[in-house]
Write a structure and sequence with these properties.
Layout (H helix, E strand, L loop, with lengths): L21 E4 L5 E7 L4 E8 L11 H7 L10 H10 L3 E6 L4 E8 L3 H13 L5 H18 L3 H14 L10 H5 L3 H11 L5 E8 L2 H11 L27 E6 L5 E9 L8 H12 L5 H9 L6 E7 L4 E10 L3 H17 L4 H17 L4 H13 L5 H10 L4 H13 L4 E6 L1
Parallel strand pairs: 2-6, 7-11
Antiparallel strand pairs: 1-2, 3-5, 3-6, 4-5, 8-10, 8-11, 9-10
Helix pairs in contact: 1-7, 3-8, 9-15, 10-11, 11-15
């Protein structure tokens, strides 16, 4: 009989079973990765291009080109496209990141053959209609005006710009960037980075033979320029040197009731051997609800509703960042407590029970990243675009449970004790 009065034993996840996707070369040579099975009823077909915002000749051109690609193509208006996809219960998602862009089709597998021709036309011959572009500009200018009044946004943008400078990671959007967008710019960007350019396809959900054939029939018929390569996102990493001088920046926002606090410094990214240890350490500091920053500054002092720290890894750099919003009267006290917690990590070993709680939290979070075919496809996409393999996740889980308090105090002293922290406070 099941004992319902006692909680089940906690069994930490120590291994993740990850299967590699199937690789198929389309008729035009472009790579397709498929994960899923014949029984799934829905499918996601994502097409990746080397057309991120790092290709911008002027800010917002790459983003606008990507975001407006699904608003009609030559021969079919935006409303007609929307009506067709809505009729079949399908949707399109566009995404422009720093180093890549993508367009994804979500649909019932049984309708894919009716939608793929339109999807392909959107990829190849987007209309960039003047009316749609003007609406896009108005929406984004209005959103930017609203965001620009928020202390959280002001502090975040200033921090990015201070850390990364002119690099695409440090770019701060301005109203003029949207006002200056033109249809010709979008058409030129599309011609340079989408039309006849190599791409990668990731199919998740239904991956039946019939569906792959349908995808090949459409995406495989796109003519790509000679010399196209499947290794779109590899061998493109560039070292990015962040500022190594501590800074304290105050942005005055008259009448603000809260101060937005951002503290950050350079770190190591996913390919570095210390990444797993540093990630665990930053989770102890502020990576979950019971973290030290939350326990001290929210639960004990009552200075904030929430505070967190994270290790943010980009392709060319990584940073440790701490973020919160607090009352303007307790800003100085909050900063003092943050640095106290950082110094404690450098001087005192983390108790065994606390360390085990964080390890359990992180291993559970890792498992959630693989919950479902679409989620697994996202993980594969991350590996692919960062030139990593499945070994990354296996090593993460295996390493997590072997890291000791002694190793973490050494890591804290190496990366936190004398870190050139950049501190940005925006408030009254």
């Amino acid at each position: 009989m099941i004992d319902r009065k006692s909680a089940p034993a906690i069994l930490p996840a120590k291994k993740i079973n990850i299967t590699n996707p199937d690789y198929i070369a389309l008729d035009n040579g472009m790579p397709l990765y498929a994960m899923g099975n014949d029984h799934e009823e829905v499918v996601k077909i994502e097409v990746l291009f080397d057309a991120g915002s790092d290709k911008n000749s002027q800010q917002q051109v790459a983003e606008a080109t990507c975001n407006l690609s699904d608003d009609g193509h030559v021969g079919l208006s935006a409303s007609a496209v929307a009506e067709k996809f809505e009729y079949y219960g399908a949707s399109i998602e566009t995404l422009c990141e720093y180093h890549l862009s993508s367009m994804s089709l979500y649909a019932m597998a049984k309708h894919v053959h009716k939608l793929m021709p339109v999807f392909c036309d959107l990829l190849q011959t987007p209309e960039f209609a003047t009316g749609e572009l003007e609406n896009y500009k108005v929406r984004n200018i209005q959103q930017l005006k609203v965001q620009s009044e928020k202390t959280e946004y002001m502090a975040r943008m200033r921090m990015r710009n201070e850390l990364f400078g002119d690099h695409v990671y440090g770019a701060v959007p301005a109203i003029s960037h949207f006002e200056n967008l033109s249809r010709e710019q979008l058409q030129n960007f599309h011609a340079s980075y989408y039309a006849t350019k190599p791409f990668i396809v990731i199919v998740s959900g239904c991956a039946s033979e019939a569906l792959i054939k349908q995808v090949n029939k459409t995406l495989g018929s796109i003519k790509c320029a000679p010399g196209s390569t499947a290794n779109l996102f590899s061998n493109q990493k560039h070292d990015l040197t962040l500022k190594q001088v501590p800074q304290k920046i105050k942005i005055t926002k008259q009448g603000a009731l809260q101060s937005a606090v951002r503290i950050a410094c350079a770190a190591v990214n996913k390919s570095h051997p210390d990444y797993f240890k540093l990630n665990l350490l930053i989770n102890v500091l502020g990576g979950y609800f019971g973290s030290r920053l939350m326990s001290n500054i929210r639960e004990d002092k009552g200075y904030t509703y929430g505070i967190g720290s994270s290790l943010v890894a980009y392709r060319d750099a990584a940073i440790i960042t701490i973020a919160t919003e607090v009352g303007t009267d307790v800003t100085a006290a909050t900063l003092e407590e943050i640095y106290k917690e950082i110094n404690k990590l450098c001087s005192e070993e983390i108790p065994a029970h606390e360390l085990q709680v964080v390890k359990n939290y992180m291993s559970g979070s890792m498992l959630r990243l693989f919950d479902g075919t679409f989620a697994r496809a996202e993980r594969f996409r991350m590996l692919l675009t960062n030139s990593l393999t499945n070994e990354y996740y296996q090593n993460f889980i295996a390493s997590l449970h072997q890291i000791s308090s002694k190793q973490l105090i050494e890591t804290a002293n190496q990366y936190l004790l004398h870190a050139p922290w950049t501190e940005v406070v925006c408030g009254d």
